[in-house]
Amino acid sequence: MDKIQIEERIIELLKTVYDPEIPVNVYDLGLIYRIELSDDLTQLDVDMTMTAPTCPMADFMMEDVRQKLETIEGLKTVNVNLVFEPEWTQDMMSEEAKLELGLL
Asked: Which of 36, 42, 63, 98 could bridge across to 76 with cysteines, CB 3.0–4.6 Å?
């Protein structure tokens, strides 16, 4: 796979991870802040946040993201980092997520 195919697969997989308390995937919720693929396409670094710093499902969701991304052929290392800067707000959600949650 080339870089564009891998990046498309990353987003596809991220859209299969859901916050158990919200019926929207982590990508459309705007919880993914950074996706960085190494030049040799073997290392992936992802920065993500939670809707609240005290989210009881943070460990579960981060592990779900990591496990799904590790299925991408060619990746040797997947690092999922929990960050809280900038603080998440509803403005970070996609239009689809806002629509799904009745915010539009």
From this structure: 42
Domain ranges of the chain: 3-85
Express each pLDDT in 69-102 by its tens digit: 999 999 999 999 999 999 999 999 999 999 999 9
18 φ, ψ (degrees, to nearest 5): -115, 145
- Strand pairing category for 43-48 and 77-82: parallel
Residue type, 96: E
Distance of alpha carbon 41 from alpha carbon 49, whole angstroms: 24
- Would you say domain 3-85 falls under CATH 3.40.50.720? no
Asked whether the beta carbons of 14 and 27 are under 8 A apart, the reply is: yes
Beta-carbon neighbour count of residue 98 at 10 Å? 17
d(CA 11, CA 83) in angstroms, rounded, equals: 19
Give the amino acid at 69.
Answer: L
Nearest to 37, CA basis, from 27, 29, 46, 24 = 46
